From TrEMBL:
<feature type="transmembrane region" description="Helical">
    <location>
        <begin position="12"/>
        <end position="37"/>
    </location>
</feature>
<dbReference type="InterPro" id="IPR012902">
    <property type="entry name" value="N_methyl_site"/>
</dbReference>
<keyword id="KW-0812">Transmembrane</keyword>
<dbReference type="InterPro" id="IPR032092">
    <property type="entry name" value="PilW"/>
</dbReference>
<dbReference type="Pfam" id="PF16074">
    <property type="entry name" value="PilW"/>
</dbReference>
<dbReference type="Pfam" id="PF07963">
    <property type="entry name" value="N_methyl"/>
</dbReference>
<keyword id="KW-1133">Transmembrane helix</keyword>
<dbReference type="GO" id="GO:0043683">
    <property type="term" value="P:type IV pilus assembly"/>
</dbReference>
<keyword id="KW-0472">Membrane</keyword>
<protein>
    <submittedName>
        <fullName>Possible pilus assembly protein PilW</fullName>
    </submittedName>
</protein>
């Protein structure tokens, strides 16, 4: 046997061939990893958006339904800060003429006395909305914490919507509701605790009160501004705005850092950990069915 032929038969890949193979392998691996990363990021965004949409649609619908029946059972349809058992609770007087509930448990906005609403967006404080109604319907109702309201219950139902930390160990914010009861005389029970979470991840909650100055003019004001008015028009509408956050973090940075809530633009805080979530702002306008203002115009007839 020719020894040169044996050596030729045992020859392997050359160094150039190995380098080409290595480069091709790295390029293919990089392409696969890029596709995997893009698919994972897209899946995370879709999952986060679905979380936000699902929690917001059902929770806001329930919130709107409760706000809509504010002032139910009250023969006085003109809601102001002095209306006895008025549907929007702005002062202790609204809970009863002799009531002494702390104003921090009532409807508040940024700048209200003693109010320190929290937010994950900017230094703009979240608002608080407190409403009141009585079940005069022929059906059993449920308050925002799921407690039964019997038919023809003599007590008034108080509901307070506000933002708080989920727990002492979980600093993330949520929208909660605290429900209690009040007698005709203004004695309040089971009111003023941490309530139940109704939207798991909320960074901001804003409220505007629609004040009916006359039959043609409706103005939306924060609670603090409304209380500063000398002549307070009747409240007929409530606007609420929320910024809802996903519970699943995003792989990349969040898609938005500025949000407009009820006409006010707010920018996310510089804390980088707060940017890695999917967020969306939602608004709704609720007409108070039991707070209608009627304007009767007299027309002089010809003699």
């Amino acid at each position: 046997m020719n020894p040169y032929n044996k050596v030729s038969a045992m020859a392997g890949f050359t160094l150039i061939e190995l380098m080409i193979s290595l480069v091709l392998g790295l390029l293919i691996s990089a392409a696969v990893m890029q596709v995997y990363f893009i698919n994972t990021r897209t899946l995370t965004v879709q999952q986060s958006a679905s979380e936000v949409q699902d929690s917001t649609i059902f929770a806001l619908q329930s919130l709107n339904d409760h706000i809509r029946i504010a002032n139910l059972g009250n023969p006085i349809s003109n809601i102001t800060d002095t209306t006895d058992h008025g549907g929007v609770v702005l002062t202790p007087t609204n809970l009863g003429t002799t009531n002494g509930t702390a104003t921090t448990l009532l409807t508040n906005s940024m700048g209200s006395t003693g109010w320190t609403g929290i937010s994950n967006i900017t230094n703009v404080a979240s608002d608080q909305l407190t409403i009141q109604y009585k079940n005069i319907t022929p059906n059993i109702l449920y308050d925002c914490e799921g407690t039964v309201i019997p038919v023809n219950d003599t007590n008034w139902v108080i509901e307070r919507y506000f933002v708080r930390a989920i727990s002492t160990t979980v600093p993330d914010l949520a929208l909660a509701c605290d429900a209690g009861r009040a007698t005709d005389a203004g004695a309040v029970t089971n009111f003023g605790d941490n309530g139940e979470v109704i939207i798991q991840a909320v960074d901001q909650f804003q409220v505007l009160l629609g004040a009916q100055a006359d039959v043609n003019n409706l103005t939306y004001l924060p609670a603090k501004t409304y209380l500063e008015l000398t002549d307070k028009p009747a409240i007929t509408t409530v606007k609420v705005g929320v910024i809802v956050r996903s519970t699943t973090p995003l792989i990349a940075e969040a898609d938005k850092e500025t949000f407009t809530v009820l006409g006010t633009t707010q920018t996310l805080k510089t804390d980088s950990s707060r940017k890695k979530f999917y967020r969306r702002a939602y608004e709704s306008t609720v007409l108070l069915r039991n707070a209608r203002v009627m304007s009767v115009i007299a027309v002089a007839t010809a003699p």
